[in-house]
Structure formats: structure tokens, C-alpha cells
Amino acid sequence: MPATKAKRKATRRRAVRTKKQTTSEKIRSSAGVIRGGRERLQQPYSYDEATRHYASWVYKALNINAKARASQPLRLYVRKTSPVAGRSLMWDTRPLAKRAKRWLRGDALAQPSLYVMRKGIEFADDYEEVTEEHPILDTLARPNPAMTGTMLAEMQHLHYQLTGNSFVHPVLNLLTGAPSQFWPMLSHWVEIVPGAAESGEWIKGYWYGGRRSRIFFEAEEAKHWRDINPRDLYYGMGKVEAGWSVIQQNVANHNYRTGLFRNFARPDYLFIIKEGQSEESIERFEADIEERFRDSRDAGKFVTVTGDVAIQPMQWAPKDMVKTEEIVEEVAAICDVPITKLKANDPNRANAEQGDFDWVKDVTIPALNGHEEFLNEYILPLWGPEIANNAFLAYDNPLPENRQFDHTTRIEDANAGLRTWNEVRNEQGLESYAPEIGDVPRVNGVSVEDIGQPADPLAGMFQFNHGDAFAKSQAELRHKAPAEQDVREGEASAVVASMRDVLARIFQQQLAAVLARLGGVKAAKADELTGMVSAVMENTLLVEQQLREDLLRALGFGADHALGELPDEYDPFDVTNPKVVEFVDQYVPRLAGAIQAETLRSLQLTHSTWQRGGGSIADLTQAVRALNETTFGPARSEAIARTESARAFVQGQVEGWEQSGVVTGKRWLLAPGACEFCKQAAKIYNGRRQYGLRETPDQLQQGTILTGTDGGKMKLDYEGVAGPPLHPNDRCDLVPVVE
Questions:
Q1: How far apart (Å, rounded) are the C-alpha atoms in residues 5 and 19?
Q2: Residues 567, 429: Cα–Cα separation, whole Å
Q3: Neighbours of 729 (CB within 10 A)
Q4: How confident is the model at residue 721 (pLDDT cuts 50, 70, 90)?
Q5: 93 in helix, strand or coil?
Q6: In this model, does residue 157 exceed pLDDT 50?
Q7: Does position 322 have pLDDT exceeding 60, yes or no?
Q8: Do residues 247 and 328 lie in contact, with contact meaning Cβ atoms separated by under 8 Å?
Q9: Distance of alpha carbon 132 from alpha carbon 25, whole angstroms
């Protein structure tokens, strides 16, 4: 019994000691397991073999990566005021652009290393870029007499990819203690010497060199940058080790093809020698044949043999090898390179551009981040604690404030008339439009030549609208009960009121934004219009989002109304059916664009008038403020709301009739006092030919000119006329043709 208690106490004491184990003890434990009791750690994989396989597709892929990473600009950023010294650091600096600070804070599409983002937060934006020839930048740019900074960086990235390890030896100045040179240590010549188990140190040093000339470096004399290796805590894992199988397939494939060219892959003929020949004579015969015909340059020669030898052609074909295409694809995948970069003849430009973008974002930037952390954690502190605490190194953003930013900028410039469509398309590598279309500056799609043509700023302001069917919808519900009729009228008014209020609020926001931009302009210059255009275009997406819900309500109301007009009962209309969604998805952006275009047209006209008069900024501000009664006023909001809700209402009628399955066509119902253009449209729709629900007559297609019954002209430049409303305040309607 006492013995059992003693064992339990001993077990508890061991448990307590385990829980209180120090960090150094854990290091000794881990190191002991990994080291296996050896004095030095041999490389877990032959790095010499890895560097020997820097050839063929591996060379191409890793070389692309290394050159791309080594070519990225590296900058030094310093805190403007040192909290330790309490003084301004004596370096020439310059403030950062907003784009650069967004990148360093991690607010871009991709991010720098966590170290850099932490430093940015720690410095609280109180840092600038060092611009003078600082010792840190000078040493990294000219690391040693034999190499440039780019060459050293390329060597580091190559070894990091090949073996998963990159070593560099800093040569310290004896007077200052700061690095004066950096030399690369070839990873296949480095063996790590772990620290002694009792010392608690992780690494004691490094053996470096070939078998006959080895030098020992202390741990602080070499800096080790390594990739993750799930099987080793000392050495990293490289691409060659990870892709050894496919790399060997590539080597075998090359050897096989080389053998074919040398006529050595397999025999083409079989020589049959009759019995009785000695082994020695057969060997001499084989040697003679091999000497004569082994090389491809000996093709076409002939041989003379005795009657004791018969020659029989071999009929089999060479054994199929792994296709080169499959090997290249796997090498590209392992080396993290887009296949389009290895295949110079890839015709798919779009795939190549997307592949390049993803490669920079998902491969190049993470690799640079790893090197960035290595430089800041292990290289920068060599210049002393004040530098390490108050400065950091960071790479530029390889995504030029990203493709998304460039794409948005192109669209904004094209919408503002600053660049033509063809200029934008050429930048993206797309074919140009015809000159009369693509070389004309446009403001949100409207030719600049057409902007400002009307003398009245309100002329054409509502040309994109199509009428007001809601105002007369109750008149067509005569057979409905009065209570139901009141409900429908209330629904119609609610939709119009909601859309009107939304538009009024957006117009006031736009006016305020435009005036704010003008308020920041001190004197007349060339870009006042650009600022006003930007202020309007900033909330295009908001316009779309706000209009969508009200248009869906109007469409559903029109569909229910149409189904209620039919003699039989039908299922309630489904506003989520694909055709309805497709219509709304296509129409809402067009409507929002048309509203924005009209706003810009009015601003452009106001600006042109002010510019011709040579007024001051205050005069322009006053002229824009006057647009509160027109362009940004309640009358425009009301007109657009009634007209566009009416259009959605009529479209809903068509959708409802189609759902019923009994309506085969539509006819135009003229309102009392209809205009000449509506009368002409009615004549077209109500002629001998019956038009289907989704049909538009040729005379009413987009781009045509409609001649009214009195000879007037109306250009249908917004869209084809599939039904009323044809113009603002049009009270005409469609009626169904039932089977």
C-alpha cells in the first residue's frame, strides 16, 4: 500500500513539473526529437539535387516568379517623431499619397504583410517615406561588389522556391556595427547546427561550403528565411521537393524524346543470326551496327551482311509517354505560375489577363509579404533599436491600386467625357468602335455635341419618360366594386408618392454634393465640370437601388389589374418569375443612367453658359443653385415618378396577360385629346396586322423617326415603343386581344 502511494506522489510530481516546463525546456525537447541526437542537422532532402533541377519548365516558372518579386520597389518609411528620443528624425522624407497609405493600412484589395500593417497602426499615420540616400537603402541596393540589389533579391527568391530556404550573411562594419555588405549563402551548401540541449538555444550556427572547404558561421552571422515544412522545424520545403514526381516525369520525357532524335529509343530492326555463331562474333556484329547507325546523322546509310543474317523490321510504335501538356500544367500549378505565362502561344487574352491578376494577388503579394517580414524582423534591426522601433521596410502594391480601381476610373472618365469609348477600349486591348461612335466624347453616353443644343435648360429634360397610366387606371375599373376601386387607386398613388419622394431626396443630395465641390474651388479653372460630374455620378448605384423596389410594386400592380380585367379568375401574379426579374434587371440601370444623363446635361449646359460669360465661381454656384427649381426640383421628381411607374404598370399588364395564357395580342387605346404621335401609334397597332404581347412594330423601333398625323417628327432614341406611354402625361393604354 505505501509503495502504491509513493508511485502516485511521484506521478503527480512529474505532472507538476511537466506543467511548469519552461520555454527553453520545450525547445530542448523539440530539438532533441528533430535532431535525433546528432551534432548537426542534415538537409531532409538533397538541396543539391533541387538546384540541379533548375532547368526546363521549372527554370521558366521559378525564374518568372523570382524576377517579378525582385523587381518590386522596396521603400523605407520612418516615424516623423521618435517617441523614444522625443525629436524629429533627421532624414529627408516626403508625405505619402492617399493610395499608398491605403495600401499600407491594408485597405486595398490586397494587403501588405501583417508586420507592416501593425507598424502603420502603431505609428498612427505619423510616418513618411525616406527619400534621401539612406544607409539602409544604399546597402540593400548595392549589397556587395559582385551583385546589385535586384540580383541578390532574385537569388534569395530563387533559393526560397527551389529548396524552401534562403540564407544571407551580413558583413558588419567594425566601427559602426551596422551592415556594410550582404552576401547570399547558397542553400545547398548550408547545414544547420542546432543548439545544445542544455543551452536552450534553438540554433547554434551553420556549416557552409563544399565537402573540402567548410566554414562555421555563428547563429547571428547568418539570416535564414524559410518556407513552411510540415515535417521539419529547421528547414523549409521547396517547390522541387513538393513536385519531385512530375519533375522526374519531365526529365524522363526529355530523355525519351532525345533518344528518339538519336535513334536510340528502341530498335527499328531485328537481326536474326543463324545458329553456330560464337558469342564473340555476335558482340562484334552488334558493336559494328551500333557504331554505324547509332546517331541521327547516320540515317540513310546501308549495311551489307552475309546470308547467315536475316533482317526483320520491328512493327510496334513507340510507347506513349505522358503528354507534355499535362506535365507543364502540373509544374505550373506547383510553382504557382499561370499556365498562360509558360505557354507563349496561348491565344486567350482574357484568360491571360485574369490569370496575371490572380497570380499577382494570390502568389506574388504573399511571397513579397513573407520577404517583407524577414527584412523587418531580421535585417532592419541590424542598424540598431532606434531604426527598428521607428522605421519599417515595405514593398509597393504590385496591383496598381488594383484593376478594379483602374476599371472604375476608366468608366468615370468616359462618363464624364474626359476620354472617348475607343480610348478606354484600346487601353483594355479591345477592338475600337466605328470612329463616328467611339471617337466622340460623351457624357454618360450622350455625345458632347448634342449636349447644350437646346436653348432652354429644360428642353428634353424628360425625354426618357414615357407617360402616366396610373392617373387614369381607375377609369378602366368601372366594373369593379367601389371599395376595391378605392384600394387600387390608393395603391397607385402610394407607388407614385414613394418614387417621387425617393427621387426628390436623391436630387437634393446631388445638388448639395455639387455645391460642396464648387465650395472647395477658389478660382475658375478647367476642372469645375469634372468635379460636378463626379458629385452626380457617385450615387448612380443608389439611384438604381432606390428605384428597383417601387418599379417592382408598380409592375405587380399592373399585372394584377390586367388579370382582374379578364372574365375568368386567375392565380395571383408572381413578381419573382424570371421574365419579370430580367425586365427589372435590364430596365433599372437604363432608367438610372437616363436620369443621371439628363442631370449631367443640365449641369453641362449651365457650365457652358457660365464659361462663355466669363463669370466667377460665385456666379457658377448661383447658377447651379438655381437648378433647384428645375433639374433638382420637385416638378421633375413628380414627372419621372408618374411616367416611369406608368411604364412599369403597362409592362406589368403585359406580364399578367401572358401569364393568363388566353391573351394573344394587344391593341392601342387612345385617350381623349390624344396627340398626333399617339394617333399615329394607334393606327400602326390597330391596323390589319395583330401584334403579339412582346412585339414592337418596325415603325416604332428604337432609332426610327415617328411622323405624327399632323406631320410632326419624333425621334424614338430611347427605346422602341412596345406600348404607351409614348411621352410624358400620355394617358393612352393597351387593351388585350383575347382568344
A1: 21
A2: 58
A3: 16
A4: confident
A5: strand
A6: yes
A7: no
A8: no
A9: 47
**436 in helix, strand or coil?**
helix
State the pLDDT at residue 723: 83
φ/ψ of residue 71, rounded to 5: -85, -5
Q: What is the pLDDT of residue 34?
A: 47
Q: How far apart are CA 274 and CA 310, in angstroms?
A: 8
Q: Which three cell numbers stand for residue 597?
A: 444623363
Cα→Cα distances 497→470, 550, 613, Å? 12, 10, 40
CA distance 610 to 607: 5
Distances (CA, A) of 126 to 76, 78, 117, 278: 14, 9, 13, 93
Burial class (CB in 10 A: 0-12, 13-18, 19+), 86: exposed
Contact 663, 736 (CB under 8 A): yes
Cα 236 from Cα 226, distance rounded (Å): 5
Tens digit of each residue's pLDDT (9 = 90 or more) over 276-290: 677 777 777 777 777
Task: Using a pLDDT cut of 90, give the percent of the chain over it.
Answer: 19
Give 3-state DSSP helix, strand, coil % of the chain, rounded to 5: 55, 15, 35
Question: What integer best gives the mean pLDDT of the chain?
Answer: 76
Rounded CA gap, 602 and 597, in Å? 9
**Integer Cα distance of 738 and 220 in angstroms:** 92
Q: Using an 8 Å Cβ cutoff, are 159 and 166 in contact?
A: yes
Long-range contacts of 351-358 (CB under 8 A, 24+ apart): 353/429, 357/399, 357/403
pLDDT at 575: 63
Domain range annotation of the chain: 47-239+357-395, 402-438, 453-661, 662-739
- Here the cell at position 366 is 504573399
618-642 core/surface letters (b: 16 or more CB in 10 A; e: else) = eebbebbeebeeebbeeebbbbbbb
Q: How confident is the model at residue 499 (pLDDT cuts 50, 70, 90)?
A: confident
Give the pLDDT band (50/70/90) at residue 380: very high
Cell 455645391, located at residue: 515
State the Cα–Cα distance between residues 730 and 678, nearest whole angstrom: 8
Q: Which grid cell sits at 224?
A: 535564414
CA separation for the pair 708, 706 (Å, rounded): 6
